[in-house]
Amino acid sequence: MRILVTGGAGFIGANFVHWTRQHRPEVEVTVLDALTYASDGSSLAPLGDAITLVEGDITDAALVDRLVADSDLVVHFAAESHNDNSLVDPSPFLQTNVIGTYTILEAVRRHGVRLHHVSTDEVYGDLALDDPARFTEDTPYNPSSPYSSTKAASDLLVRAWVRSFGVQATLSNCSNNYGPYQHVEKFIPRQITNGIDGLPAKLYGDGLNVRDWIHVDDHNSAVWTIIDKGRLGETYLIGADGEQNNKQVVQAILRALGQPEDSYEHVTDRPGHDLRYAIDSTKLRTELGWAPQYADFDEGLKATVAWYRDNEAWWRPMKDRTEAKYAAAGEAVTAR
Ligand code: NAD
Ligand code: TDX
Questions:
Q1: Is this prediction's pTM over 0.90?
Q2: Residue 28 lies in a domain
Q3: 190 occurs within a structural domain
Q4: Is 125 close to ligand 1, i.e. is its CB under 6 Å away?
Q5: Measuring from atom 17 of ligand 1, which residue has the nearest CA?
Q6: What is the SS3 assignment for 304?
């Protein structure tokens, strides 16, 4: 089997490629990645020439066509992925998430190649903090940010190409991932690396917003389960019952770092900040028999803290640049 992994040099994509090499050594992997600010390709370096890395853009129709023609399956991770960046400049989100997905869809349509489209629970908008409800496959789309609206658009394109053109595709919408190789712009790695640098953690607003955390390996084992057993045209929600508010996560990180649990400060809130995400993954678990392996969030987080301690050479080059971006966007300490 030959698979084309778009965005395979990014956080989840690189972990997917590592997972695939480990658990499916017979699969031939080609990665298509533009190596944007989000990745310099170093997350794939440990694999050497066991995989093929093609540096290129998913909006390049000729390149995509050639690579798709040589594949049995496309797993589509490539995206602009950070909400805060989408609030500063939405344009690359439109290009990559919408036009890029359209370009992939046209190529898989021409060549009759199976697609798995990777998406996010943010397409459903947010839930109230005191609402017992969780997202299901039937929750109406209601995205809040430029990022999540372009991901929602990409999902709708995939569904339309399935219905109108018979494209063979499955979709998944996953909750917040954590684990190795995540860019330090994202919440958990930002706070871990701040702690290592002796800086306070940065909590947006009151720090009470809730995210539903899943280890990246559990996300990727679910993606493979859907590739193997999922029904074409169907959407599966992926989640591991990991709801935590941001302050609880910061305190767990500080405990893992051996630092006082109040080494954080409140900073400017994100405009339009979604309150809470929560996934009901019953369909994936009962229909396809998937279960997460990282049941204990604190343990998964400790292992992630250890990874960032041990891999400073990987994240150090992006740290100052990332903090400068936050400062330029006007992030400031607020009283609470
Ligand atoms: P990431 O930003 O770490 O990686 C994205 C990768 O895509 C990078 O390597 C980047 O270079 C590449 N890329 C960007 N634009 C490209 C283009 N035009 N052409 C080719 N490559 C391009 O993101 P991530 O966190 O690994 O997210 C991967 C996917 O998973 C995204 O589709 C995202 O929406 C989805 N997702 C992420 C999360 C999460 O918690 N991070 C949760 C659910 C779903
Ligand atoms: O410094 C911070 N302080 C803080 O309080 C940062 C960077 C974030 N936050 C908050 C905002 C969110 O409530 O932490 C929470 C998580 O923030 P992010 O890591 O930016 O993730 P989120 O916006 O929830 O989106 C993530 O999950 C869904 C991924 O980035 C998306 O790609 C995915 O689709």
A1: yes
A2: yes
A3: no
A4: no
A5: 57
A6: helix
Expressed in angstroms and rounded, the spacing between residue 153 Cα and the centre of ligand 2 is 20
Q: Does ligand 1 lie within 6 Å of residue 177's CB atom? A: yes
The whole domain housing 122 covers: 2-177+216-238
Instruction: Give the number of the ligand closest to the Cα of residue 154.
Output: 1
What phi, psi does 127 have (nearest 5°)?
-115, 155
H runs (alpha helix) in 129-232: 146-165, 187-196, 216-229
Residues with Cβ < 8 Å from 322, sequence gap 6 or more? 183, 184, 185, 190
User: Which ligand lies nearest to the CA atom of residue 202 in the structure?
Assistant: 2
Output the six-digit token pair for 330.
């006007």
284-299 burial string, b = 16+ CB within 10 Å, else e?
Answer: bbeebebebebeebee
Ligand 1 near 192 CB (within 6 A)? no
Cβ of 31 below 6 Å from ligand 1: no
Across the strands, what pairs with 6? Answer: 32, 76
Q: Does any ligand 1 atom lie closer than 6 A to the CB of residue 104?
A: no
Catalytically active residues are 121-122, 147
The CATH number assigned to the domain holding 122 equals 3.40.50.720
Domains identified in the chain, total number: 1
From 76, 83, 129, 197, give the residue whose CB has the most ligand 2 atoms within 8 Å, as the site to mutate.
Answer: 83
Q: How far is the CA of 116 from the centre of ligand 2 (A)?
A: 24
Using the 8-state DSSP alphabet, how is residue 50 labeled? G
Ligand 1 centroid to Cα of residue 9, in Å, is 9
For residue 203, being part of any structural domain is answered with no
Q: Per-residue pLDDT tens, the chain, 336 aa: give them.
A: 999 999 999 999 999 999 999 999 999 999 999 999 999 999 999 999 999 999 999 999 999 999 999 999 999 999 999 999 999 999 999 999 999 999 999 999 999 999 999 999 999 999 999 999 999 999 999 999 999 999 999 999 999 999 999 999 999 999 999 999 999 999 999 999 999 999 999 999 999 999 999 999 999 999 999 999 999 999 999 999 999 999 999 999 999 999 999 999 999 999 999 999 999 999 999 999 999 999 899 999 999 999 999 999 999 999 999 999 999 999 999 987
In a domain, 297, yes or no: no
